[in-house]
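Q: what sequence does this backbone want?
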């Protein structure tokens, strides 16, 4: 007994010294200035990239390689964007498209998540549905617009159908990919402590597959947003409201290239905002909780 105490003593002291050293390193590595550098490293690269794109655009415009109606300058697009906001068209169109996108994406998550779990957990289902989901994921969602229009007519149901068919396969494949990376040992441990069936899915599989699941959700949102905009651009109807796709198509019909670029800027801004304000913080939080960031 005395020998065990003697052996554990030096080992315990060594571990304590190592932990104290790591704590000291982490403490010294996170001063306030390093946080500011981290924020600057996150914010400055996108600003520099946008500035470079605008500079190249302005150079091409100033070179007059193409006429103004083919390639307007950044200032012309900004002026068109300003007019869109001042006339009250921008906020309504953005709100309309985001509302449709949120409903379609929420329904896609509600369908795609259990579908991915069932497909990943049952081999016969995977053998049958796995290749179909992968094939649907690579199918351009714009291909679903004509049949959805013929079936539902120019209605919100048509929009949601195209969004579902575009986003559900991506989310399901993301869930499957995340579950495939869960070590079997986790399931064995879960079974030994009583986590079986749905309890195993809730308390073992989904938490372990969360990083892959979040990646699937991010990709699913991208597919949902693209599908929605494709539908809004192709199908114009009073039943679908005044959307971002309507703004873009209206600019095309009026041969207004500045207006078309302004609508694209709005579409891009919504995509970037959703990614940076929703998915990026969620992903950072999950990775940090697992010691991966």
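A:
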């Amino acid at each position: 007994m005395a020998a065990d105490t003697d052996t554990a003593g030096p080992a315990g002291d060594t571990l304590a010294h190592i932990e104290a050293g790591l704590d000291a390193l982490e403490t010294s590595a996170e001063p306030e200035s390093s946080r500011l550098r981290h924020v600057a490293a996150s914010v400055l690269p996108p600003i520099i990239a946008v500035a470079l794109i605008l500079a190249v655009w302005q150079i091409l415009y100033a070179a007059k390689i193409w006429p103004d109606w083919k390639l307007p300058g950044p200032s012309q697009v900004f002026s068109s964007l300003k007019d869109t906001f001042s006339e009250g068209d921008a906020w309504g169109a953005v709100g309309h498209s985001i509302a449709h996108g949120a409903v379609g994406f929420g329904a896609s998550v509600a369908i795609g998540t259990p579908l991915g779990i069932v497909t990943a957990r049952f081999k016969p289902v995977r053998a049958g549905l796995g290749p179909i989901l992968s094939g649907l994921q690579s199918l351009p969602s714009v291909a679903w617009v004509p049949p959805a229009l013929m079936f539902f007519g120019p209605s919100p149901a048509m929009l949601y159908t195209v969004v579902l068919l575009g986003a559900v396969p991506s989310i399901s494949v993301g869930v499957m990919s995340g579950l495939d990376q869960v070590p079997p040992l986790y399931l064995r441990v879960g079974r030994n402590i009583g986590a079986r069936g749905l309890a195993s899915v809730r308390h073992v599989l989904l938490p372990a597959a969360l990083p892959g699941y979040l990646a699937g959700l991010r990709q699913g949102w991208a597919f949902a947003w693209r599908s929605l905009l494709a539908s809004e651009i192709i199908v114009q109807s009073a039943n679908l409201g005044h959307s971002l796709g309507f703004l873009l198509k209206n600019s095309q019909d009026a041969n207004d290239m500045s207006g078309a670029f302004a609508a694209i800027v709005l579409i891009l801004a919504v995509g970037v905002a959703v990614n940076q304000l929703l998915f990026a913080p969620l992903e950072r939080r999950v990775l940090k909780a697992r010691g991966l960031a």
